[in-house]
């Protein structure tokens, strides 16, 4: 049953792997998983990690990304995803779901959920999507308190605490760099610089900040879609593709539903669907059948 109902790799080993990956000089690629099955696909294809996006959890609940989701909702989705993959999972913890004490509780809950790391942002609570206008950031000192509370709550030293700054689009890149340095001093292991626009911006940030950096390659946002090879050459340590799988799936689902509505049948869509055999392969269906067979073949010897 090892690795069947749950991942074979322990949470501690996944966290150690994430730490090692960030220190490896190789870019860690973390596509977003909008459900656990997608996380299994991400692992099978060969990526280094899985990301759980707060925007995606919100969208999956048919809510906008404006801080309406709760710690319980987000952590439970993270637990579901982490359970099925041997890859480290990084999760979006928004602003920590409240004041510094709440950020501390968030870290402890996410550790218990088997997550490898989380990022906390310096937006005013409730937050907004990082690539929309109208954001506001808290004073640096307030974010430092948020981070120090999170770091103090960490029990596994390999749990990665990432500090996200949204200041570049509000206060400018120099201010965002100053914040990143303050966040590193406060104990952040990784810095996520939101909504940088060009390769030159990413290069400028990398030259100024000593600790590992994460890039967000979300579609339709403010950032140029920089190839992974370029980010690795610049010296970035991780990249997330937060909403890509949800956008792909929703586009396909909408197109298919419209055709069924108009044509009255899905017969013309079969070549655009995942086949049942492929789904069963991804679910390792045969292994479950083997397990059932072993259980039902068991007989209890009785003393005569």
Automatic annotation (TrEMBL):
Family matches, as InterPro entries: ICL/PEPM, Isocitrate_lyase_ph_CS, PrpB, Pyrv/PenolPyrv_kinase-like_dom, Pyrv_kinase-like_dom_sf
Entry coiled-coil feature ranges: none
UniProt keyword Heme present: no
EC number: 4.1.3.30
Catalyzed reactions: (2S,3R)-3-hydroxybutane-1,2,3-tricarboxylate = pyruvate + succinate
Entry keywords, A to Z: Lyase, Magnesium, Metal-binding
Uppermost EC category: lyase
Presence of the UniProt keyword Metal-binding in the record: yes
A Pfam family annotated for this UniProt entry: PEP_mutase
Pathway: Organic acid metabolism; propanoate degradation
Needed cofactors: Mg(2+)
UniProt GO MF annotations: methylisocitrate lyase activity
Function recorded in the entry: Catalyzes the thermodynamically favored C-C bond cleavage of (2R,3S)-2-methylisocitrate to yield pyruvate and succinate.
Family affiliation: Belongs to the isocitrate lyase/PEP mutase superfamily. Methylisocitrate lyase family.
Protein name per its UniProtKB record: Methylisocitrate lyase
Native species: Nocardia implantans
Organism placement in taxonomy: Bacteria, Bacillati, Actinomycetota, Actinomycetes, Mycobacteriales
